Amino acid sequence: MERAANLPAAIDAAAEALIGVLDSAVSRHQLAVSPTQLRVLSLLSGRPETNVNRLAELLDVVPSSASRLCDRLEAIGLLRRVADPRDRREVRLVPTAAADALLRDVRERRHAALRAVLDRMPGRVQQELLHALVSFGRAASDGAEAQPASPARTA
Length: 155
Description:
With 155 residues, this protein is mainly alpha-helical. Helix content is 66%, strand content 10%.
């Protein structure tokens, strides 16, 4: 067993390998959107109350950049801007059915690529990986909730 001091390096290397597998599952196929646009659709699909300002925060960009991204997605039929029923001055960003289908296709391709890698691993190791990833996810979530706000964010 490797020393615990090597664990962050091993996780970093595994994350790079994972990103490579996920990216190659999609890059072999011609998508109508860029990786950034795909990320926007993915973010919006899980956040139905999102407006341009909130999207800009999620992406860590200025609102005008987020708005231009939305303009391009709207132009190709993957995004709609709709008035918030509670406050008509607010505009929500809603992925279209075509965006949902695109995200579903990307998710299926990525899962198939991951299954191909997992199939090369013994079942016992797959189970250990599952438990480790669940624990890691919990620890990361708990740690994020326990973190005090940074001084720049509290001002």
